[in-house]
Amino acid sequence: MSSEVHPGSPAAPLTILVVDDQNASRVALSAELDRCGHRVLEADSADWALELFRRHRPDLVLLDVEMPGHDGYWAAREMRAAEPGGWTPIIFLSQRDQERDIWQAIEAGGDDYLIKPVLGMVLHAKLRAMHRLAQMRERLVLLSDELRSANAQLHELSTVDGLTGLMNRRALDESLHSELELARREQQPLTLMLCDVDHFKRFNDRQGHVEGDACLRQVAQLLRDTCRRPADRAARYGGEEFALLLPRTPRSGAMTYARALMRLVAQRQILHPDSPVAPHITLSGGITTCVPDASTTAEGLLLRADDALYTAKAQGRNRFFSYEMQMDTEEQRPQLPR
Q: Which residue range or ranges hold the Response regulatory domain (predicted)?
């Protein structure tokens, strides 16, 4: 390499892997780079170069083309395969100057091609250019990571209810459609429950909206606690109304689930002095269960669960009703004192 004066090197020192089987050329090039403050790794074969590349992840590779055994093209391809998603600048150094040689170098994964002997000014200009490209790529990667994080936060804000932390109506609709398709494909039962807090307006009027919000958060936690299987989902449907989506849950299992939820609510004893149903809050709910066929729709399931919810209210509240079973949870437990 010529010792022609160069205008300087990148401000930040680089770790540079120099690969050349010719000892004199490699040592001279390494000495020049070391003089400019760079950290230099040396390899006299493609195999050893690949090992150093994997071990140290250099900032730049200066790679000779002609070497015994595997050549530089092979080394470049292996280096690219060893850094999925990453990018390390590779500059080929060769005495070959044919167009096909340059094309083959770029095809193998190289970023530039210099003809030996390389002038010092040219080499350092290339180093600075590659360093700028690497910095630009790092900034793009950082911006991409920040964008992915922002999108994830935005998605969470758009799918999570701010008060309770449960899925919101939009997320429930998406989950219901996907679980419906899965249940239809696998011919498995799917249960949907809609429930709300009995006489919640009276609770808000008596206790105030702050306590009302606290009550809804406690109910949400109870629903979350009952979702023991990974596929079970609880959502805030709107206001004081909640939804439970229970894949692979048959009719009998749905009723058992509802009774367990009512026991948890009763045990929590969240006081509701103005309720004509009980001294504590209670839930009314509608259940629909089916093995979906081609005519089953998400909208139809929601309407049927909503209709069952109103039937439960008409029959006295503090119960879950299922049209498919023509029964409610009141028939399965002792009557509570009014």
A: 15-131
- Separation CA 18–CA 59 (nearest Å): 11
Q: Give the residue from 304, 198, 197, 200 showing the smallest Cα distance to 254.
A: 304
DSSP secondary structure of 59-101:
SEEEEES--SSS-HHHHHHHHHHTSTT----EEEEES---HHH
Strand order in the sheet with 327-328: 233-238, 241-247, 190-197, 283-290, 320-322, 327-328
Question: Tell me, what amino acid is at 211?
Answer: E
Same domain, 127 and 189: no
The Cβ of residue 309 has, within 10 Å, a number of other Cβ atoms equal to 24
163 closest CA partner among 210, 227, 127, 113:
210
User: What predicted TM-score, i.e. pTM, was given to this entire model?
Assistant: 0.57
Alpha helices in 187-278 (DSSP H): 200-207, 209-226, 251-268
Convert the pLDDT of each residue in 104-139 to its tens digit. Answer: 888 998 888 888 877 777 777 888 877 787 777 778
Contact 113, 102 (CB under 8 A): yes
| 24 and 60 co-located in one domain | yes
- Judgement on whether residues 199 and 276 belong to the same structural domain of the protein: yes
pLDDT digits (tens, 9 = 90+) for 243-283: 999 999 999 899 999 999 999 999 999 999 999 999 999 99
Catalytic residue among 78, 179, 240, 330: 240
Domain count, the chain: 2
The CA distance from 231 to 190, in Å, is: 11
**Identity of the residue numbered 153:** Q
Q: Within this chain, do residues 182 and 105 fall inside the same structural domain, yes or no?
A: no
3-state secondary structure 159-181: HECCCCCCECHHHHHHHHHHHHH
240 is catalytic: yes
Angle at the Cα of 84 from the Cα atoms of 78 and 87, rounded to 5 degrees: 80
**Is residue 219 a contact partner of residue 230, using CB atoms and an 8 Å limit?**
no
Angle at which helices 169-186 and 298-314 cross, to 10° = 110
